[in-house]
Amino acid sequence: MDFVMILQLLIVLGALYVGSRYGSLALGAISGIGLAILVLGFGMKPGNPPTDVIYIIIAAVTCAGIMQASGGMDWLIQLAEKLLRKHPAHVTFLAPLCTFFLTVLVGTGHVVYTLMPIICDIALKKGIRPERPCAVASVASQVGITCSPIAAAVASFVVISNEAGFDVNNLQVIAVTIPACLCGLFAAALCSYKRGKDLDKDPKFQARLADPQMKEYMYGDTASLLDKEVDKNAKLSVFILGALAVIVLYSLFQILGCDIRPMVDSGKLDDAGNPVMKPIGMNIIIQIVMITAAAIMIIFAKASPKKAVAGPVWQSGMVAVVAIYGIAWLADTYFSNYLTEMEEGLTGIVSQYPWAISIAFFAVSVLINSQGAVVVAMLPLAYSLGIPGPVLLGVLPSVYGYFFIPNYPSDIATVNFDRSGTTVIGKYLLNHSFMMPGLVSVIVSTIVGLIITTIFY
Question: Which pTM was predicted?
Answer without folding.
Answer: 0.79
